[in-house]
Amino acid sequence: MTNTFPEISISTERLVLRPLDEDDVPALAEMMNDELIAAWTSVPQPFDEDGARDWITEYAPKERAAGTGLDLAVTEFLTQRLVGVIQLTKTNWHVRSTELSYIIAPWARGEGYASEAALAMAQWLFRDQGLERIELRTAADNTASQQVAQKIGCISEGVLRNACIARTRTEDGALAEVRTDFIVWSLLPEDIEGVTEQLAEAGGFTAFSDWN
């Protein structure tokens, strides 16, 4: 029987990670048209509400049902506003590993939301799902994503040369693909212990989860 992720909601001091729903369509579509998201992800551009709805109602449920991934909305605890998306892909239940990525809306950047959401997800994966390895891949020039990986305790394992396709805006306004390197990061259960303690001492968050 294929392992699958449960329907999960994870809360931190400032955030709630929960399944995407159709109410998120407008905010998700708006967020995905940001220039940095266009540059560092493979999300189709322009990204419209039909694409957002397909992601929420078709792609995400299929990934979870197949046991290969999980897509969660990241929302502010107080306002319930959509902050971003955190995604698990390429999950291998035999090896007990998965690949994690995160997207943060332009207005929410610089607040530490990506690291807070990623660390909460990692805590849940290691403690409740029994995973033993989380992998992250960041484009060589995507320093913001690399800072998140470092902040949550990831270890840089090396470079996949010429393995990433990024996008850049040309003079006529079109998006052109450019090849670059991937930096590979890993996170193991023991890597987050000190990080969690540091956040607690600094008035950080305590993650908890409920699922059915």
Secondary-structure map with pairings?
Layout: E1 8-11, E2 15-19, H1 25-32, H2 35-40, H3 49-66, E3 70-76, E4 82-92, E5 97-104, H4 113-127, E6 133-139, H5 143-151, E7 155-169, E8 175-187, H6 193-201, E9 208-211
Helix pairs in contact: 1-3
Protein described:
- Residues 15-171 form the N-acetyltransferase domain.
- It comes from Streptomyces kunmingensis.
- It holds the Pfam family Acetyltransf_3.
- Helix content is 31%, strand content 35%.
- The protein contains six helices and nine strands, in the order E-E-H-H-H-E-E-E-H-E-H-E-E-H-E.
- A hairpin with a 4-residue loop joins strand 4 and strand 5 (97-104).
- Helix 1 (25-32) crosses helix 3 (49-66).
- The two termini are 18 Å apart.
- Mean pLDDT is 90; it is low at 203-212.
Strand elements, count: 9
Bulk shape: globular
Describe the main β-sheet briefly: 9 strands, mixed
Mean pLDDT: 90
Indicate the radius of gyration in whole angstroms.
Answer: 17 Å
What strand order characterises the main sheet?
Answer: 7-8-6-5-4-3-2-1-9
Total number of helical segments? 6
**Ends apart, CA distance between termini:** 18 Å
Which stretches are low in confidence, meaning pLDDT under 50 for 5 or more residues running? 203-212
Structural class: alpha+beta
- Helicity range: 25-40%
In sequence order, what are the helices and strands, one letter per element?
EEHHHEEEHEHEEHE
How much of the sequence lies in strands comes to: 25-35%
Protein name: GNAT family N-acetyltransferase
InterPro entries: Acyl_CoA_acyltransferase, GNAT_dom, Ribosomal_N-acetyltransferase
Organism: Streptomyces kunmingensis
Pfam families: Acetyltransf_3
